[in-house]
Amino acid sequence: MATPADSTAAPAYAILPDEPLAQLAARYGLKPSAARPSILLYMRQLWQRRHFIVGFATARNVAMYTEARLGQLWQVLTPLLNAAVYYLIFGVILDTKRGVPDFIPFLVTGIFVFNFTQRSFIIASRVINDSLPLIRALYFPRASLPLGYVIIELQQLLISYAVLIAIVIGTGEGVTWYWLLVLPVMLLQTLFNVGAALILARVGAGLDDVSQLLPFIVRTWMYASGVMFSIQTMKTLIGHHLLKYVLQINPAAVYITLTRNALLTKQRLSTPGAAAYNPRLCALYYVNPHTYMYDSAHCAPVISTTGLWLYAVGWAVVTLLAGFFFFWRAETRYGRG
């Protein structure tokens, strides 16, 4: 026989408290899920996930070539094949190697360094759209994605550097203390790539055409960055002081030049400004196609090595800060877990 319900039983629905919901949320430390964290909190969240970011990058790097028969060897073969093609076209057919000592390590250095920036840019421009399922499933600082892919490219650059060092030594270059300068150059270029990747990731998330257009822009940038030729000693730029200056201070050219000067002794000694200024020897270099290659060192530099280092630091710091702030402002647009 059914009995009446106990009058003291709890109701089947919850009774909201009398205090405003905003005060109730504040009392329990609740925040809107779509609220953007402060910039300091956002940086702390990224730092807390540093192991995840590195682990994610390493796993993607290993899985990238698992289906290829040669596997991870393609990380080295791809830039080497590019270097072989560029050497055939620019070194043999167009003869841009004239006046450049040890053109093969000169060319390979430019390709490896620029490839680091090129791939970071192109992948970052589509990383948000390609990762939408992960973004909608979990909450994590979205800056982890472009940062992770830059780390992937950095890991591949380290492998490429092992090949580059073998090439440099094989051409007769000796190991010097200048090689240690590669480390700060690599660090500054990585910071620059991270900042630019954050900017491109945000722009690419809202405008898919960016990822389609960017390869053409980056390819044009490569031809203007001295990857296949020396901007400092380019004879066709005589009289175009402003153009030569702009080409030398563009970030890709800055990091390429500093890396070459660190690894290649002959390149460092033939750079304008490496020797005392001598107008006769400088004029001889530009007039005589068979002149002694170190005569270019007696020309006045458009920008000094110290100036290049200042630009390297400036590009890295300004781009990183601008990219982080630009991406942080749009953090809540990418969905929440």
Which overall shape is indicated by the principal axes computed on the Cα atoms?
elongated
Portion of residues in beta strands equals under 5%
Mean residue pLDDT: 81
Please report the distance between the alpha carbons of the first and last residues: 50 Å
Number of contiguous helices: 15
Summarize the biggest pleated sheet: none
What is the helix fraction of residues, given as a range? Answer: 55-70%
Residue windows where pLDDT falls under 50 for at least 5 positions: none
What is this entry, summarized?
The chain is mostly helical and 337 residues long. It is 63% helix and 0% strand.
Task: Please describe the structure with a list of short key phrases separated by commas or semicolons.
63% helix; 337 residues; mainly alpha; 15 helices
